[in-house]
Amino acid sequence: MRLQNKVIIVTGSTTGIGKAIAIRCVEEGAKVVLNGLEKDLGEEVLNIVGKQNAVLHIEDLAADGAITRLVNLAITHFGKLDAVVNNAAIVASSNLYTTDKDFLRKLLEVNTIAPFTLIKEALPHLEKQHGCVLNIGSVNAYSGEPNLLAYSMSKGALMTMTRNLGDTLNRENNVRVNQINPGWVLTENEAIRKREHGLADDWYKEIPSVYAPSGRILWPKEIAAAAVYWLSDESGPVSGQVVDIEQHPFIGRNPPKNSQTMKEPT
Question: According to the UniProt entry, where is the signal peptide (predicted)?
Fold first, then answer.
């Protein structure tokens, strides 16, 4: 098992990518601290992985003291901390005209500041284990879709933090920091979001090739499989790296002329 006896915090692990990562980590021999907002969904994940392998902490990471409580839970329950997966995020549509300061601050608080705070709080424990951090970003970090301004800004900042801390913490604390930037992933929340936008329930079965050359989008378990490499000792001393997980080159890709597009009802 590639993560045998490692203790890993996975934020936002009651649904989607975080859930898939937590389940895969346990399959690979790790003990996991689950975190999210939905108690019922969190308990479902806890039952899947087994209560002997995980502990659940339901709390908004933006709440005062939440990060400290999360780290303390890992230490008191499992006795150490080997890795942190910063996955929790708010995905919300906005552009220049619909984004006000309060909305932007909210997204930055959860998507960027909470990961920063968790790294800082966990660092003494990670240093003891020569551990690592894996940040879950987004290909939108590079510029973002037209209606994902605030979200894209938060992920861009997260990527810069990964590059910066990936150098300094590896050099000074023997703690590696890397990042995965997923592309379009079929999570539960993404399926719901598209249906709320007026698309059919089975919208994901016919994705235009401009978005999905393979004929489908990514699954959470595929992101989880990639995460295991960065959390395991197999990645060696590698740090400060950002890896895009998508099925086409996101930057500089020119869609074919007259390509079919996936339009959402207005």
Answer: none
Q: Give the tokens for residue 119.
A: 């790294």
* Residue range 73-87: mean pLDDT, rounded: 98
Residues 220-242 have pLDDT tens digits of 999 999 999 999 999 999 999 99
To the question of pTM greater than 0.85 for the whole model, the response is: yes
Q: In what order do the strands lie in the sheet with 7-10?
A: 54-58, 31-36, 7-10, 83-86, 132-136, 176-182, 242-245
How many C-beta atoms surround the C-beta of residue 28 within 10 A? 17
Domains of the chain: 7-183+219-240 (3.40.50.720), 184-217 (no CATH)
The three-state secondary structure class of 150 is: helix
Instruction: Respond yes or no: is residue 151 known to be catalytic.
Output: yes
